[in-house]
Specification:
Elements lengths: L1 E2 L8 E4 L2 E11 L7 E8 L5 E7 L3 E4 L2 E11 L4 E5 L5 E4 L15 E7 L4 E6 L3 E9 L12 E6 L4 E5 L7 E5 L4 E5 L3
Antiparallel strand pairs: 1-6, 2-3, 2-6, 3-4, 4-5, 7-8, 7-10, 8-9, 10-11, 12-13, 12-15, 13-14, 15-16
Amino acid sequence: MATTADFRNGLVLEYNHGLYQIVEFQHVKPGKGPAFVRTKLKNIRTGKVIDNTFTAGHKIETARVENRKHQFLYKDDMGFHFMDSNTYEQIMLEDKMVENADLMKEGQEVEILVHAEEELPLTCSLPAFVELEIVYSEPGIKGDTATNATKPAELETGANIQVPLFIDQGEVIKIDTRTRSYSERVKN
């Protein structure tokens, strides 16, 4: 059991017969009336984000979850297959449980959020940044770095993102998986 004073981003709550993760919260102390906490809660199973307000000091039930490191093995008709880095056990996740799956390549380390009491995998998230090679892009223009103009590029995993004009085919770039955007060119 916890209270609103224990809120932090990423905390998982048992709320409305489901598991919700706190995406954002704000303590508010109005001039008149009791204090309250405004939150954005993301349903772990559906991904839907809802707004909710709790009165200050409200008791809530937290869920015991763990982030466990896994290695992505392969994808087939059944879903995505991963191996636990510590126990070498393999698990399979459905497509909807993996965020930004098109930015994941075989052998990549990921974190799987597991409900510790039920040993049930909930979601899979990539590291904040991944390095991928560009397999197709229009030829770059030398010296064109002054503008913020972008062009489409296809990555080795099949994903398409926007990159600056000076990036060429065959280069390795760093991608921010949270925003699905180009971050920087990787030096060889």
